[in-house]
Amino acid sequence: MTDLQSNMESFDPSTIRILKLVTLEGVPLFDDTVEQWETIWNFKAKPDDLLICTYPKAGTTWMQEIVDMIRHGGDTEKCARAPIYERIPYIELCELKPFPSGIEQAEALPSPRTLKSHLPVHLLPPSFFEQNCKIIYVARNPKDLAVSYFHFIRMDKTMVQPENWDEFVETFIAGTVAYGSWFDHVKDWWKAKDHHQVLYLFYEDMKEDLAREIKKVAQFMDVELPEPVLNRIVKHTKFESMKVNPAVNYTTVPDCLMDQTISPFMRKGIVGDWKEHFTVAQSERLDEICTQLLKESGLTFRTEL
């Protein structure tokens, strides 16, 4: 058991507060993140840092576990050494007892570090670009992502709860949710890949052929993956395996922070679940907005396989 896990057992639920959204340079972020912004912005990346960046609920934890497995040669025991949120710090996460801040966690890690962020390009600490760090970006179609985000907020006790699905769709489209506009996020990171070391991947491609996408990640990391190791990583990181793995499914987090009786952290992990939530009118409206806002970017997203 790690120090953080043992601290969980003495966690005081009365210390939980609901995080409000505050706009920073056009992007709604959690108020504690904005309060600590100078520290986050001045974070010192190292040249051998690997950053996993996503808009929330785009497959972040999935990619974190894939990268950790590649780093450790497919050794599942090494990847069970601690929960994923300890192994790969979330750099803009502020201290929330019993969790230290993401910056503190990152600074305590030996190199080479794997780190996580949900920040849009223009808010990423500049040292990542100055040090020419490798960045893996995962993008997911907006319909499935919106559904996943909605259910995540319902179970996360630090976030303001949406009234209902219809209200959430409106706030998501308007970009007034945490981390702002999905459209801006995916487009700006798509442009960034032309100027920085960014591997841009799609959740739907990972669902279609996980082995193929893992090979891309390993190649980007300059790691040779023998076939047996690749097969082991594929088996370990399939959704069915991840869902029951306490090192990645966040069941080690107290219920008063994440109530998985409302919705599990690892919920369905499929492409097309949006059909169970979107009305025809909502779906058609989002299609039109995507066509309009993404047309010049060259980005396209699959909403079914």
TrEMBL record:
Its main location: cytoplasm. InterPro entries: P-loop_NTPase, Sulfotransferase_dom. It is found in: Cytoplasm. One of its GO terms (biological process) is sulfation. Its EC number is 2.8.2.-. Belongs to the sulfotransferase 1 family. It is an enzyme of class 2 (transferase). GO terms for molecular function: aryl sulfotransferase activity. Pfam families: Sulfotransfer_1 (PF00685). The keyword Transferase applies. PANTHER family: SULFOTRANSFERASE SULT. This is Sulfotransferase. Keywords: Cytoplasm, Transferase. It comes from the Eukaryota. One of its GO terms (cellular component) is cytoplasm. Gene3D superfamilies: P-loop containing nucleotide triphosphate hydrolases. Residues 47-298 form the Sulfotransferase domain.
